[in-house]
Amino acid sequence: MSPRAAASAIQPYLRLEHVVKRYASGGPAAVDDVSLDIARGEFFALLGPSGCGKTTLLRLVAGFERPDEGRILLDDADMAGVPAYARPVNMMFQSYALFPHMTVAQNVGFGLKQDGLGRREIAPRVAAMLDLVKLGRLAARKPHQLSGGERQRVALARALIKEPKLLLLDEPLAALDRKLREETRFELVRIQRRIGITFLLVTHDQEEAMSMASRIAVMSQGKIVQLGTPPEIYETPANRFVADFIGTVNFFTGHVAGTDGPLLHVFCPDAGAVFTVEHEPLAAGADVAIALRPEKIALEAPPAEPGRNRLVGRIAAIAYRGDASSYEIELATGRTLRATLPNTRRRAPPFAVGQSIGLAFEPGACVVFRP
Amino acid sequence: MSDAFRRRAVLALPFAWLALFFLVPFLIVLKISLAETAIGVPPYTPLLERGEGGWSLHATVANYQFLFSDSLYLRAYLNAIKFAGVSTLVCLLLGYPMAYGIVRAPRAWRGLLLLLVILPFWTSFLIRVYAWIGLLKGNGVINNLLLATGLIHEPLALLNNAFAVYLGIVYSYLPFMVLPLYAQLEKLDPALLEAAADLGCRPWQAFGRVTLPLSLPGIAAGALLVFIPAVGEFVIPDLLGGPDTLMIGKVLWDEFFTNRDWPVASAVAVAMLVLLLVPMGFVRRLLQEETA
User: Fold this and answer.
1) A141 and chain B: CB distance < 8 Å anywhere?
2) Intra-chain end-to-end CA distance of chain A, in Å
């Protein structure tokens, strides 16, 4: 073990050190000074909007692109100068990139055949891998005879069969319909646990990242803006970008009106109210932004007496989603905000459009950002 | 108007075209090939004749028997197939890297490069073949240049031989190889090559296991587009090959216009068509397997 690895918080298996990638020399960096340690056996997600550099980072690890600066180490081996075909890394492509002229079994066995293994060694391993992804009965089919979900599993099997040190997944569920996507999430996690290979997932879908990954790096404009477990990223976003990108959020801007022990009173003009939030003391008059998630707001009709963190509004619109409903609520100031409530009862919707309604939230429900 | 009717009407047009401009002329040629030469206009006997006992049929396979009796025809066929086959192979070996290069060129360049491939078509085929005479002949541009630079001391025999015929065919038909190959290679998803590399293929291995098998339909289309017209090629062997070059297209021409033996010429044409059906059927099967 290198002394550096011992010093770091986690035992790094994949280590990125100050990686920079520019597509045009002197142009903007697609990946801008990214350092990252991923542990062995982790299910790690790179999450960000399109164009944030997450796919470029994945391609750098795969060896399809070369970094302009920095180092990529896998299991203590420097990957510089190691071409894609020689890296102990396999990738599952967003388009799946299945070979159209080969059967499912030939696609899955491609990597083994390339390594010079004989038919006798390849056949049982292909069969076992097809079993793992539940595709045994389709071994003789060609890719164009498969459904989207089946193709996705062929791509996974093909990438796993060489037992790579690291599996890269580029938007693996993007081409699937919603229901299949949800099932496949559990399936991917199950397979990852079973075979123990380190997964590095790239996705723009925060739900996908949060439901599968053990840790997430949120990327924006080539940089990692936050690194943490899914609850850390969701409940304590590091900045407004992360709060806004992950899930839905109501933002209020205001200035500090006073301090009260662990609490901060913030006057928010657009809400026409003082918010009491948990935060370390700040100087009076300091500008802050407050983020409040829709599910952290309680609704009550008729509105209760005004009090701490209580607002009154009118329901402007309701989006019924089955398991829950989203309410758009207009405050007296004209400012609208979003609240979400699970539909716990089958009949009688709890609220109606146009109804006057009270909003309440805990001081701990708010996240405070300093500009 | 029903959908079925409309569909049939749309299909009827190409069928009518093929029937009118391919099937009917072919039947006329077939008819002439079964007749005997006669002095007159047209210079062959009628197939059906009205005599005293009503209509009578005059058909003979003597012209086809004649093709087998004289080894000239067989040699001319085999020579034509050899010329066309070798030229097709050379076109493939030249055209594949060209098409691949154009596909891989920056997007802004591709249009220009394709235009350059098609550019020769803007000049008449005949004029371009004549131009090669000017380049290849004993005191032509190439020989004069080589003599002037002192590389050679007497002119090379570049014209009136097999080399000139190969050169002419490859030069003339190369675009017909490049264009279908380009169309095929352009469809190839670059992610497939990345996937092959990811699974352990060096670039040349990825070419062999992915690019080449997936470009087979383009290779087949290009090979047919070069091979079939090259087999019947008449102008190039006549102008560049000199009197000793034997190709079936030239024999056909001589039978029609020099000997005025239309029935034998027609028999040569029919035999040539039958001969070409073999490679076409082979390629058709290959393509069907590919898409199966």
Assistant:
1) no
2) 42
